[in-house]
Amino acid sequence: MIEIGIKGRQDAVVQENMLSTNVGSGCVKVFATPMMIALIEKTATLSVEPFLEEGQSTVGTLVNVAHLAATPVGMKVYAETELIAIDRRKLTFKVSAYDEKGLIGEGTHERFIIDIAKFQSKADEKSQKCNIKAIVFDMGGVLIDLFYDRCVAAYKALGFNDICDYLDPCHQKGIYGDMESGKASEDEFYDFFLSKCHEGTTRQDIDACMKSFYEGPSEKTGELLKSLKQKGYGIYMLSNNNPIMMRICDSDFKKVGIGISDFFDQAFISSSMKMMKPDAAIFNEAIRQIGLNANELLFIDDSQVNVSAAQRAGMNAILYTPGEDLAQVIEKALR
Question: Is 266 helix (H, G, I), strand (E, B) or coil?
């Protein structure tokens, strides 16, 4: 167990490769400050190493040390450290360095306890080349903006006062959800919704309520998707949705040049697939039909539940927060 008071000492002899002139830290042939710091870090590391769990080590995160005196080549030097504070995984050391004539450096040094495998894996990710070949977009909340309260108000104006029992910002309920999962037909949906509204309400009125649920896509979004396609990325849609909304939306997508039926390489819609996010089946089937490896796909959704499900399926997936710059989010993910 690591405890305050652990001390360490490491000795060395100043060699040619430790001089400022050879490590790029100066033009005088003396013990280089970076080499003194390295000796201090080594001392702190080795002092606590025997007290760590298997698979753990420490990494330096802060050095606050003054280099007080110069040391020539060939002279003996040593560093001493003492653990003076422990804050969960953060270790703080009092440190000093000496040569044969006395004190040459002193200060403090902080290190963090890390899991070696996890730390190395995270670092290695930075060097991995991005290999995304296709982007899979959620529709509502990503490509189009949703206005839940406005839609609720539109239905209530028709007399459908308990609409919130069926309409949800992310996952629809009751017969609304049944239509999105392919269990209920359009006729069944219309008949039920009309039965909840004032007499004389028409299917066109229901369609108008549905259309009030969203705005977009914007011209900016259209240009973004077209530019991604021109760069060679496959463009797909994966949405929990129903045939009525898809029919209404398609004309708005066409207005900005990204018609659902003729621009997207494929649109995976829950009602036709009879599968819904976040179930694994819909992600696995989309991956199969696209014909690429899961790790070659980037999935973008505004629901963390859906993002997590996509990641479990092996896809690269990112959470989009409505209002963010979608182009910047994608650019960052493709680096």
Answer: strand
Question: Rounded to an integer, what distance in angstroms lies between the CA atom of residue 262 and that of residue 36?
Answer: 65
| Domains in the chain: ranges and CATH | 7-123 (3.10.129.10), 134-144+215-333 (3.40.50.1000), 148-211 (1.10.150.240)
Enter the DSSP assignment of 53. Answer: P
Catalytic residues: 33, 41, 67
Please state the pTM of the whole predicted model: 0.63
| Measured distance CA(55)–CA(134) in Å, rounded | 37
DSSP 184: S
**49 Cβ neighbours under 8 A, 6+ residues apart:** 57, 58
CA distances from 168 to 171, 173, 197, 208, 301 (A): 6, 7, 18, 17, 16
Each of the 335 residues of the chain gets a pLDDT tens digit; together they read 899 999 999 999 999 999 999 999 999 999 999 999 999 999 999 999 999 999 999 999 999 999 999 999 999 999 999 999 999 999 999 999 999 999 999 999 999 999 999 899 888 766 655 689 999 999 999 999 999 999 999 999 999 999 999 998 777 899 999 999 999 999 999 999 999 999 999 999 999 999 999 998 999 999 999 999 999 999 999 999 999 999 999 999 999 999 998 999 999 999 999 999 999 999 999 999 999 999 999 999 999 999 999 999 999 999 999 999 999 999 999 88
User: How many residues are present in the chain?
Assistant: 335
Distance CA 159, CA 164 (A): 13
Comparing C-alpha atoms, which of 258, 316, 261 is closest to residue 283?
Answer: 316
Beta-bridged to residue 86, according to DSSP, are: 91
d(CA 72, CA 99) in angstroms, rounded, equals: 9
- Beta-ladder partners of 78: 11, 98
